UniProtKB/TrEMBL annotation:
Top-rank lineage group of the source organism: Eukaryota
Listed Gene3D superfamilies: Penicillin V Acylase, Chain A
Stretches assigned to the Peptidase C45 hydrolase domain: 55-198
Stated name of the protein: Peptidase C45 hydrolase domain-containing protein
Amino acid sequence: MVWLSVETKLRCLDVHFQSTSAYLPAEAMFERLCLFYGFYVLQQEILVLYICGVLKKYDPFPFSLYSSYLVKVKLSNGTTFTAYTYAGELPSCAFGFNNHGVAFTLNSVPPCEEEIVGGAIGRNFVSRDLLEATSIEDALARIHSSEASVGHSYNLIDTRTRRILNVETASRNRISVHEIGEIPFFHANMYLHLQVKQAI
């Protein structure tokens, strides 16, 4: 498992390999991961992910600068995934990808209190489940069957076919799927397709 702590100016990046004694300076390892996976640090607090034409800008809260990680996990069933994660939370709160060619980015879309369903599934459980999806169709099915407490906006990416879907979800099994074509598409922390009352 590789742990990368994303910190201001990349000072003190902590890189540790549990399965090998090989060690690279933190900056060199981070640079290699950036080149391979398409991660870029634009400023002190901004991380950008680029996969198959999808650009994800992530500007975490200041408190998370010293407690954010890229985790690479290999499960007993052979699935491996890499995910951006806050310490103590399920992977992933922002983006991730796996060895099945499935990748995703996400945005929270904060609803009004009346839109929240108590006792339903928390959205971080849904995004963790996506890390094991075997195809973009499987990812979509996992999102659709989740009965989430609140919604998310997901960009699902099939890195093999280069197919991209934007999926907006909301409580009470509301879902909207928008296939991204050649026309540039932008989504932030607001619903574009579903009619949901939001906290602004």
